Amino acid sequence: MSNLLQRVITAIIGASIVIGAILYSEFTLLLLLLFIAVMSMLEFYRLFESDGIQPQKFFGILITISIFISPLLNSLFQVPVNLVVLLIFLPYLIFIRELFTHAEKPFLNIGVTLLAVIYLAVPLFLFYLYSFQGTGSEGYHPKNILGYFFILWASDTGAYFVGKYLGKRKLFERISPKKTWEGFFGGLLTALVVAHFVSMGFTNLSRIQWLVIALLIVVTGTLGDLVESMFKRSINIKDSGSILPGHGGFLDRFDGLFISAPFVFVYLLLSGQS
């Protein structure tokens, strides 16, 4: 089976699961994002373990679960959100636990453990909060998330095909030799076109806002892709995993989301849509 066919089949199956989880309920979106966060963190920690670092995987994932647990508990059992603040002590257990590991480089172990939370878990939770922004009725707006993914997927598709067949000028050769300026602008054009059509159906946000979101997704998403490539290149590996045929791992598939989500979230806050 060709790599392109694998990519297409995996993309169709993955997109179906993502869209289904978004449309079904806020609860299933939370579970989906938590699943992506945990799988990405396991891959992230595995990358650094191959370089001799020993992150505290258990505590890193526990902190990630605690970030998502507040709305989950509130949704399922009406647990007051302020009680979850009691979990704020969890990150400090990492420092205490490192006392008993006898590690030669405790700074690196602690740093990588917490870096995964900042780099992966926090952006995904901000992405969840993004689903509550916009005009109209208050509450969960699945169209926000759907529009975001449609734009992100359009950008990835446009960048892939334009870069593959027309790409000549290297975008950031030191980090990612295959990325080109032609691919970048191809992704930008397809993202803006899709954002225009998204704005016609998803009116919770204005057309200008969708176009700005598309611009932020392409620029910061591309930088997110380069950041992940930087991590992989530093330890001489091609893919973060192989669980997604044709796409690599969860880090490879969602790297643009991890960096772009905080920028889009902050943009909507500053534009008064909260």
Layout of helices and strands:
Elements: H1 3-24, H2 26-49, H3 57-77, H4 90-98, H5 106-130, H6 142-166, E1 170-172, E2 176-180, H7 181-201, H8 207-234, H9 250-270
Antiparallel strand pairs: 1-2
Helix pairs in contact: 1-2, 2-3, 2-5, 3-4, 3-5, 4-5, 5-9, 6-7, 6-8, 7-8, 8-9
What does this structure look like?
With 274 residues, the chain is mostly helical. It has one domain. It is 72% helix and 3% strand. The protein has helices spanning 3-24, 26-49, 57-77, 90-98, 106-130, 142-166, 181-201, 207-234, 250-270, and strands at 170-172, 176-180. The protein has a two-stranded antiparallel ribbon. A hairpin with a 3-residue loop joins strand 1 (170-172) and strand 2 (176-180). The chain is globular. The mean pLDDT is 86.
Notable traits:
274 residues, 9 helices, two-stranded antiparallel ribbon, single chain, 2 strands, mainly alpha
Approximately what portion of the residues adopt beta-strand conformation?
A: under 5%
Strand order of the largest sheet: 1-2
Low-confidence stretches: none
- The level of helicity is over 70%
- Quaternary structure state of the chains depicted: single chain
Number of self-contained structural domains = 1
Give the class from helix and strand content and strand pairing: mainly alpha
Question: Span between N and C termini?
Answer: 46 Å
The mean pLDDT is 86
The coarse silhouette is globular
